[in-house]
Amino acid sequence: MSNASLDDLLGRMGATPHITVLTGAGVSAASGVPTFRGDGSLWKNYRAEDLATPSAFARDPRLVWEWYDWRRQVVAMCQPNRAHDVIARWSHRYGDFHLVTQNVDGLHERVDTWGVLRFHGSVWEVSCWRGCDDAPTRWWDDTAPFPSLPPHCPHCGGILRPGVVWFGESIDPLVLEESVAAARCDVFFVIGTSAVVHPAASLVEIARDHGAFTVEVNTEPTPVSGMVDLVLQGAAEDVLDLIEQRLG
Ligand code: APR
Fold it and tell me: Which is it for strands 121-128 and 160-164: parallel, antiparallel or unpaired?
């Protein structure tokens, strides 16, 4: 970690800039939420890409729901960590601040982070798989575990699906538009994401092309490491704590 560059970052953050943070599963790793790739990410030998698709759900909704039901129970037991805490503080301190999160666990919201853009939806929301006319598009349901799987739509009796964005599905157009606008900022952090899933990872390029000072925080190098202005290699909970201490 270069001190000069860290000082440069701190200087930019002190000048009341427009700050945007993009987070991924690494931010919740210290809370005990399993990441999607790397060690310990398989569930019953399935990868996220095997389960988080409309075709996987159509083929075996019970199996996909078992995974989500398990994840909801895991997350319900987890507590936000120092990284969530620091980001929440920034969201209240900086007048022009945005958090775009790929995380569906709701931990940023649990520490009262202002203005979270949930790029991939929420594991705590559900919707009717058939899209029945009587049901809202999506609604909150924090039952964990569900008494039987798959859970049923209270409006039509069909099956429910998790309120997340699966591979092959589009990002909510409004969330995408707001996230792209947020990426056009002064300081852009990309924290705890493998940066292989698009369009989320493309936000880094949008920020860079806009002229933002771009910073990556990750325990490992990623495809965006070579394109950012500053790489702070380390655990998000430690690096953000250090930045916050240095900001005073
Ligand atoms: N601090 C910072 N980074 C960490 C930490 C930590 N404590 N622990 C792990 N990491 C990093 C890993 O090095 C990795 O680069 O977090 C990243 C986690 O990557 P993924 O598991 O691929 O998670 P993410 O990037 O959020 O995945 C993107 O893929 O399956 C989909 O929709 C799902 O939103 C998810 C998307």
Answer: antiparallel
Contact 194, 222 (CB under 8 A): yes
131, 164, 197 — which closes off a domain?
A: 164
pTM exceeds 0.90, yes or no: yes
Which one of the listed residues 84, 98, 108, 120 is annotated catalytic? 120
Are 114 and 221 in the same domain? yes
Q: Which atom of ligand 1 is nearest to the CA of 35?
A: 21
In tens, the pLDDT along 158-195 reads 999 999 999 999 999 999 999 999 999 999 999 999 99
Q: 194: CA distance to ligand 1 center in Å?
A: 5
Which of 27, 37, 196 to mutate for ligand 1's pocket (most ligand atoms within 8 Å of CB)? 37
Q: What is the full DSSP assignment across 41-64?
A: --BTTB-HHHHSSHHHHHH-HHHH
pLDDT of residue 175: 98
pLDDT tens for each residue of 120-165: 999 999 999 999 999 999 999 999 999 999 999 999 999 999 999 9
Q: Domain range holding 185?
A: 1-32+80-120+171-248
Same domain for 50 and 101, yes or no, is no
Please indicate whether residue 82, judged by its CB atom, sits closer than 6 Å to ligand 1: no
Same domain, 240 and 192: yes
